[in-house]
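pinging the channel bc i need a second pair of eyes. not urgent but kinda urgent?? the chain im working w is below, pasted from the shared doc
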Amino acid sequence: MDNQKPTILIVDDEDKERRVISLGLKSNYNVLLAQNGKQAVELINNNRVHLILTDFNMPEMDGLELLRWAKENYKTIPVIIMTAFGSIENAVDAMKMGAHDYITKPIKIDELKAVIEKSLQFGKLLEENLSLKEKIKKYEGFNEIITINPQMKSLIELIGQVAQTPATILIEGESGTGKMLFARAVHYLSSRADNQFIEINCGAIPHDLLESELFGHERGAFTGAVNMKKGKFELANGGTLFLDEIGELPLDLQVKLLHVLENQKFTRVGGTQFITTNVRIVAATNKNLKSEVEKGNFRKDLFYRLRVVYLRIPPLRERKEDIPLLIDHFLKKYSNLSRSENLVVVEKARKILQKYDWPGNIRELENVMQQSIIFSADGRIAPENLPEEVLAAYKDESNSEEEYIPLTKDELQQEKKKRTESIIDELEYKFLIKLLNSTQGNVTRASEISGYDRRQIQNLLSKHNIDAEKFRK
């Protein structure tokens, strides 16, 4: 059987009909033959079938029963129904049940080939769509990249573009910004998603053990090496290796890592035999690696080898428009921690959370939300439920701000206008967030509820740089 050709299963209880169609198709396709649905099921279960071409009326298991079985068990295999000219209603019934197309007897081979090609393209699209859905479903963490920030949205789009390439990726960002989420997104949206995603924190393992963790060791390589051990590079073969805190990697191991990246082979500690590897490298650091290169702490050649694609994840203080979304996300995520069904963050607490600079970024916000939910007895998260460091920062900021007092009539008018616009802007923003949350990002529904027409809602969304798509469930 030619693996380059699609495989067509012809199902018909008339031997002559099967042979005629087979002769007309075998130059373009691999052909399998079955005289009824029961035989067809056995062939489909034991072969890679790309398309089913089946008669309608057959003994033991007819075409409709076969179609029903195929849709339940092999959703991406398109089914074409063959039917007599006087029984078109059978074909219509089959189409309602999921058949992709039908063709009337007597069969014209050229016409059949055109229908088959169209159906094969449809089957290919179904497979690709199902595969993408499975990848996204498998990678549940991708849903936790919550943002309306333009820079973050650009990063997400970039991931979609580079995930399918073999390019090495360097992610820079402060601790808690979500570097791991982005690394996993790269893996699960790539062609390597069915293989291993292996991670290692280069700063959390002692220097004398790090080489063994990365490359493995042979039995007897050092004291305590009683068995051979595979390293992360070997375990990640065919998949993705995430090197977290790559800036902590010692210089001697940087040399060996560079060699592996350039030659795709390495030796275990204490070994002499080269082991080939095929891994996609995603590295991350909370340091400025370019600055580390200038200081002599990181090799320039390795830096450029890792930095084929560069992502900088902005800290939360640079994307404060995401804080309300993240607050609502964590409220839902940790609602099971509350003794109340009506979990809410009061306005004053929201203002404090919005003002705080979040040195620990999203990880810190998530921890604060968990704590606050636990400490709120009635489900209302108020300022007194927030950690002292968050409250202290808000108090310090409030005390340090000198209120501007105008001196002249013109200055007073300008200040009144400025403060009014600021209050309106903040209210409009919160209004839109609440509206989109309640309608799950449906702008038409938001228009109906709010009383604004669709164009006005879209203008407001544009004014506040809010993407309604981010609110869709």
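so The chain has four domains: 7-135, 145-314, 316-401, 405-473. and The chain has 19 helices and 14 strands. — does that match what u expected or am i reading it wrong
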